[in-house]
Amino acid sequence: MKLRRWSTIALVVVAGVTLGAPAARAAVPDRAGFVLFAAGAVSNAFPAGTAVGPSGVPGHWVVRFPGQAAPNGIVHVTAVHDGVGIPPGRWCQAEDWGPVGADEQVKVACYAPGGAADPRPGFSVLFTRSSGPFAGPDRYGYVDANPAGVIISQYNSVGAVSTITHAGPGLYSFSLNGLGTASPNAGHLQLTAVNPAAGARCKVATWSSSPNGQFGRILCHNAVGAPADTRFALSYQFQRSLYGPKLPPSRYGYLWQAPPLGPAPTNFNSTGVANTLAGGGPYGLRYPNLASNPGNAQVTAVGGGADFCNLQAPWSIAGPDMVLRVACYTSAGASVPGAFFAGYSARA
């Protein structure tokens, strides 16, 4: 599929402050929060006091990040299979987010294969909001777009304007302009469907890097795997953590399973040691020297079709390393080999 820059449907540029940092390198992010909710317990939470509770509707939860209220920003959610009896081929998505007093509130929904709400807990959530450009070879940006492809909010570390184009049912083209890197691929993408009314999933269909930016297409599907329009949040990191900062944290990494393993530029570890991947689905991912909690992991499927991926278990520490297990599924919940982006970022 040939990629090109697409015309702008609508643009909304996020204004903000840099929290006292020099203008050349803003304090990214302005606000952030993340949490792992597995087996009914909160762990790996930042900031302290982060809480997860039921919304009153089975399969739906409310996450509160204390003191992190900020307009705009983005949310990423990944399902975590964390116990016997929980459908392994489940997924979770964002429903909405926004300030509630001084806190940031994120609404999450999880679904079993076929689209029934899944009331059993198991997900990883990340919220982040940034403003102000920064200098340097590293890159970071995100967009929050509605089902028509109109951008609700965005951030771009070089101050350029990114664009989204609705190209067909469930199909979108993205141009993260100015976030240029070497070709053919360098960096890392994460993508989350946002839908308060029904089950929805989104994946990166194609992706290409160039000195002008990051370009590609997004595929979104409904609960039974048919193409469907939905709101979504997309982020891009190049030698940055999942939620934007570089130092701190000093321990973060990402890779792209192509398969078998993506080009070297898409396998990054902030400590300078390559991440490793084993297995043919499920996959075992090892991030050397990144063993540090609290932290957060996110997974996004890549390629055509309606297959999707999640975390087969909560991430774990093995000596100095952080270990993730990733699995991919058909819409019916059958395990399949898959392509995906997977990243982990420690707070420290």
How would you spell out the order of helices and strands? Answer: EEEEEEEEEEEEEEEEEEEEEEEEEE
> How many structurally independent domains?
2
Task: Give start-end ranges of low-pLDDT stretches.
Answer: 1-25
Distance between the termini: 40 Å
Shape: globular
Taking Cα atoms only, what radius of gyration do you get, to the nearest Å?
Answer: 18 Å
Helical content, roughly?
under 10%
- pLDDT averaged over residues: 91
Output the number of helix runs: 0
Percentage of β-strand residues: over 45%
Structural class: mainly beta
E-strand count: 26
> What can be said about the biggest beta sheet?
6 strands, antiparallel
Provide an overview of this structure:
The protein folds into two domains: 250 residues, no CATH class; 95 residues, no CATH class. Helix content is 0%, strand content 49%. The strands form six sheets. Strands 19, 20, 22, 23, 24 and 25 form a six-stranded antiparallel β-sheet that branches. The N and C termini lie far apart (40 Å).
Short description:
This protein is an all-beta fold. Helices cover 0% and strands 49% of the residues.
Which key phrases capture this entry?
single chain, 348 residues, mainly beta, 2 domains, 6-stranded antiparallel β-sheet, 4-stranded antiparallel β-sheet, 49% strand, disordered N terminus
Secondary structure blueprint with pairings:
Layout: E1 31-38, E2 41-46, E3 51-54, E4 60-65, E5 74-79, E6 91-100, E7 103-111, E8 122-129, E9 139-145, E10 151-156, E11 163-168, E12 171-177, E13 188-194, E14 200-210, E15 213-222, E16 231-238, E17 252-257, E18 268-269, E19 276-278, E20 283-287, E21 295-302, E22 308-311, E23 316-318, E24 321-329, E25 335-336, E26 339-346
Antiparallel strand pairs: 1-2, 1-8, 3-4, 4-7, 5-8, 6-7, 9-10, 9-16, 11-12, 12-15, 13-16, 14-15, 17-18, 17-26, 19-20, 20-24, 21-26, 22-24, 23-24, 24-25
